[in-house]
Design a protein that fits this description.
Radius of gyration: 20 Å
CATH class: Mainly Alpha
Strand content: under 5%
CATH topology: Four Helix Bundle (Hemerythrin (Met), subunit A)
Low-confidence stretches: none
CATH architecture: Up-down Bundle
CATH superfamily: DksA, coiled-coil domain
Number of domains: 1
Number of strands: 0
Distance between the termini: 33 Å
Largest sheet: none
Shape: flat
Order of helices and strands: HHHHH
Mean pLDDT: 85
Number of helices: 5
């Protein structure tokens, strides 16, 4: 069943709220990475353990930022689908994604069945 105008407005609001929150998280992460140089994490006389910890912290920060950027891209794609009228339509089968799924995951491009199939096929 296609989404009602009211559901589209509510879901668009959820997408926009999450986009704003993610943009702020990304700005904060980048600022933190710039402000917390490697030397501060490793200390003034780093040993191998300190260096490993500093590397791990830097890698985790980059991974978190990368994950946030990817989520922001999926939200932007959902925003484009809202604009072109294809939001709520599964990109694989053309069926309805379902309002409950979209409430839980507003950027979801696929229905549950197609998402399961996609994850099984492209599992890392």
């Amino acid at each position: 069943m296609p989404l009602s105008r009211r559901e589209i407005v509510q879901l668009a609001s959820l997408i926009e709220e999450r986009r704003r929150a993610l943009a702020e998280e990304i700005r904060a992460d980048v600022a933190r990475m710039r402000a917390g140089p490697y030397a501060q994490a490793a200390g003034s006389t780093p040993d191998a353990g300190d260096e490993s910890l500093a590397d791990l912290l830097a890698d985790l920060g980059e991974a978190e930022t990368s994950r946030d950027v990817q989520e922001l891209r999926t939200l932007d794609a959902a925003h484009r689908r809202l604009a072109d009228g294809s939001y709520g339509v599964c990109i694989d089968c053309g069926g309805d994604v379902g309002v409950e799924r979209l409430r839980a995951e507003p950027a979801a491009p696929r229905c549950i069945e197609c998402q399961r199939r996609h994850e099984k096929t492209y599992r890392a």
